[in-house]
Each structure stands twice: as C-alpha cells, then as structure tokens.
Amino acid sequence: MTFPPNTILERAKHIRLLIFDVDGVLTDGSIIIGDNGEEYKTFNARDGHGMKLLQFTGVKIGIITGRTCQAVSHRMTSLGIDLLYQGQQMKMPAFEAMLTQLSLTPQQCAYVGDDWVDLSIMEKVGLAVAVADAAPLVREKADWITPSRGGRGAAREVCECIMHAQNTLADQIERHYSI
To answer: Of 14, 19, 98, 117, whose CB count within 10 A is highest?
Structure first.
C-alpha cells in the first residue's frame, strides 16, 4: 500500500468524520436513466468495504450530495450510513448540521469532492481530498489528491489513509482477514 506524505497523515490522525460527495466520488459520475425515468448508479464494492472498515474504527461517515436518488439511499443503508443529505445544491448547511449533531469541529472532518460545489466545505475541513479525476480547480485546492478516480477506488484509498494515520489499519486487516 502506498500512502500520502506525512503532512497528510498528520492531518488524518485527527479525523472523526469523513464526508463524501456521491456523483464523481463514490461513482464515476455516470448517471444512467431508465425508460421509466428511474436513476441508476454504479458503486465500487471495495470503496464500500473501506467505508465499513473505517466505521469499525469509530470514524463516522457522512454523505452530502447535490442530487436525490433512491439508489444512493439504498447503498448508504446497506453500509450503515445514516448521515445522508441528498438534494443539497448548497452543501454548507448540511455540513454545519453534521458538525452540530456530532459535536465536532471542522478540523476533525475530512471531505472528498470532485467539483466546484464541493469547494466551500473543502476550504473549512481539516483534510480536503480530491479524487484523481476531479475538476482542475478542486485538485488545486485539495490537501491531497487520491491516486484513483472517483468510483474506482478513491474512497477506499481515503479510508485506508485515515486508518493508517490513526494506527487502526493493521488491526482491521487482522480482524477481517486473519493475516
């Protein structure tokens, strides 16, 4: 496993809440619309497993997305994620609600985004992450850019980075894989 520089790991040590955008971060950004108008999305199983592993360590996972989609609700329910805010064209109110609900400071949060709508939160958090295929301005403003693209392992990389920084990764590997 390859991890980011020590400056990023130092920030990751203090993360208690990891927040993801959905389209372009947990998915590759594709939106499939069926004949009946229903929206479909494809999620990466390894990303989801990384999110579950991180939750086992006590770090909370939150979702703030601009779109509203039942597929997202179903996926987050299956991952045990209840901090889900959909239809948030302006994401800051949802972020502030999460902080209040969990009694956290922005510095205790990490945010993973890919587009301009994510920048307002990325400027506030302790660790701002862009996926590899994020918009150029988002990559420029990020503290760290994942090696992988959105929907293709980026979420897993962020989860493993935080676990590594917090010295919980080896325990999770041992617990789940008996290595």
So the answer is: 19
